[in-house]
Specification:
Distance between the termini: 37 Å
Strand content: 5-15%
CATH topology of the largest domain: Multidrug efflux transporter AcrB transmembrane fold
Helix content: 55-70%
Largest sheet: 4 strands, antiparallel
Strand order of the largest sheet: 2-3-1-4
Number of domains: 2
Number of helices: 13
Shape: elongated
CATH class of the largest domain: Mainly Alpha
Radius of gyration: 28 Å
């Protein structure tokens, strides 16, 4: 394998424009496919064969008008100081607030705190539980606005009203603040470790390209394969982590080979032939581990494992082909500062 990888490294360095163009084309195609693909729908998390899932299925069968895994909200009412929520005026405000809920058909039920006994012993606090026919990610904007408007209606009546539950939970989207902070921290660490902006940028560039391709493919295949946003987030995190790691392996070995006096093309071949072997075996180990999630028999975990495995496979391919190609584009800027100065002095 080392000999084969050595040849790939030399070929990618020599044909760097072709390799770079191919990966750029793959990126464009993946992004185009993601742009025209229909948006995937979030599915209920299920664990076939487990007792809890059987209980949920039984509830859905016996009470088809409700959703056992549907979203839930809780409106908590607190009377003004020195008053009780059981007072005629405050009770009317609570009932008016609950009556104003209009979820466009998504509200399954709203409990009456006075009938269910959901009133504190001192009579100052009461709560109502609102259940919905769909889960939180499928709630429409109108349904969520209706819940917030109902709470505002109670506040206008003089009550303190707070909202709890899963109904207003925000859906986590990939590419948020957490990922940006992670990339910035990784960039700082790479610059300090490698002593070269070019070397640090090369590792980040290859990782980001692999992640972008993986994310585009997951988005494009969301509907055909039933992939959820969780799969995209996992692919993004894994692809970014291993992408930086694998590129760093090969870059470090390339710098060592150049320090020993190897020609650039020969150094690229040796770097891929040696460090690239470790990258292949490390990637294969991660692939097997992620694919093993399918053994559990939980559909969502199986999809997460396959999505993450695809991102890791892309990271390996990018590291073995695009990284040596970028060595040719970056030239001596990849080397440590001391080696660059020595080269200029010798020249």
């Amino acid at each position: 394998m080392a000999t084969y990888l050595y040849r790939i490294g030399r070929w990618a360095f020599r044909r760097r424009r072709l390799v770079g163009g191919v990966w750029l084309g793959v990126l464009v195609l993946a992004m185009a496919a993601a742009a025209v693909a229909p948006a995937g729908e979030e599915e209920d998390f299920s664990m076939p064969g487990t007792e809890s899932q059987k209980a949920f299925d039984l509830l859905d069968e016996r009470f088809p008008e409700s959703n056992s895994q549907g979203a839930e909200a809780r409106l908590v009412f607190r009377a003004p100081d020195g008053q009780r929520v059981t007072a005629t005026e405050n009770r009317a405000a609570v009932e008016d607030t609950l009556g104003s809920l209009d979820g466009g058909g998504q509200v399954a039920s709203a409990t009456d705190p006075y009938e269910t006994g959901a009133v504190s012993e001192d009579g100052t606090v009461a709560y109502s539980t609102i259940t919905y026919t769909v889960d939180a990610v499928d709630l429409t904007g109108a349904t969520k606005s209706a819940l917030e408007d109902a709470a505002d209606r109670g506040r206008d009546a003089g009550l303190t009203v707070e909202i709890g539950g899963s109904a207003l939970d925000a859906e986590e989207e990939p590419g948020g603040t957490t990922e940006i902070v992670g990339v910035l921290v990784a960039a700082v660490v790479l610059v300090l470790t490698l002593g070269s902006l070019a070397a640090a940028g090369l590792s980040l560039l290859t990782a980001l390209l692999g992640v972008a391709v993986a994310f585009g493919l997951v988005t494009a295949l969301a509907v055909p394969l039933g992939l959820t946003s969780t799969v995209a987030i996992l692919a993004l995190m894994l692809g970014l982590a291993v992408g930086i790691d694998y590129a760093l392996f090969i870059t470090s070995r390339f710098r060592d080979e150049r320090a020993r006096g190897s020609a650039p093309e020969e150094a690229a071949g040796r770097a891929v032939g040696t460090a690239g072997s470790a990258v292949v075996f490390a990637g294969a180990t991660v692939l097997i581990a992620l694919a093993g999630l399918g053994v559990v028999g939980i559909p969502e975990l199986t999809r997460m494992g396959l999505g993450g495995a695809g991102a890791v496979a892309l990271a390996v391919l990018v590291a073995l082909t695009l990284t040596p190609a970028l060595f040719g584009f970056f030239g001596r800027r990849v080397l440590p500062r001391a080696l660059r100065k020595a080269g200029r002095a010798g020249g």
